[in-house]
Design a protein that fits this description.
By secondary structure, the protein is α+β, with helices and mostly antiparallel strands. It contains three helices and nine strands; from the N terminus they run E-H-E-E-H-E-E-E-E-E-E-H. Strands 1-4-5-6 form a four-stranded antiparallel β-sheet, with helices on one face. The longest helix is centred in the middle third of the chain and has 31 residues.
């Protein structure tokens, strides 16, 4: 793997705000399940689901919302307490991954293992399109780097460095450290 030459923080933009919004929605679902005892009525006012079945439906929705809030809270905690990074090494790149959708780890990909790169551009009305995701393909994985999760200027630098280093590795050229 070698020493880390370049390192960039890779974080969500506002993880606590996202968690707070999801938690408020979940609290609303729980309040609905606790305080609403009647049947569920259709648009014309007729009962479409009886009261007992409606109570079960409300509690299932509330439970699902609470579990989703816990899942989002876990990702918020990971993002705040265990910062992720993208690190370029002499012969590969360390990228943040999640095992089982829960445990954060860094995975090393050698430059000569990378088979392809692709960029995704999003075009907004009235503005030029900007590349917002850079996809890395290797035999055992696919990873996307999102511009929004990196500091300003880091996305373009990572894309340029990865392309250059992967090309040099495929050609068999030795690399000089960038420091």
């Amino acid at each position: 793997m070698g020493p880390v030459e370049l390192e960039y923080p890779y974080r969500g933009r506002r993880p606590v705000l996202v968690w707070a919004c999801v938690a408020v929605l979940a609290a609303g679902c729980v309040a609905w399940a606790v305080f609403d005892r009647g049947p569920i009525r259709g648009g014309d006012g007729r009962v479409t689901v009886d009261a007992e079945t409606a109570s079960v439906v409300r509690w299932v929705i509330a439970g699902t919302a609470v579990l989703f809030t816990a899942w989002v809270g876990r990702w918020t905690w990971i993002d705040l307490k265990h910062p992720r990074r993208i690190a370029l090494c002499a012969n590969g790149v360390l990228i943040p991954r999640a095992r089982w959708g829960w445990v954060p780890v860094e995975e090393f990909i050698s430059y000569d293992e990378i088979t392809d790169f692709r960029a995704t551009a999003v075009h907004h009305v009235g503005a030029r399109g900007a590349v917002t995701r850079f996809h890395i393909f290797a035999p055992r994985l696919r990873f996307s780097i999102a511009r929004d999760n990196l500091p300003p200027g880091a996305f373009d630098e990572i894309c340029r460095q990865l392309s250059t280093r992967q090309g040099a590795a495929k050609m068999g050229f030795p690399r000089k450290p960038t420091n």
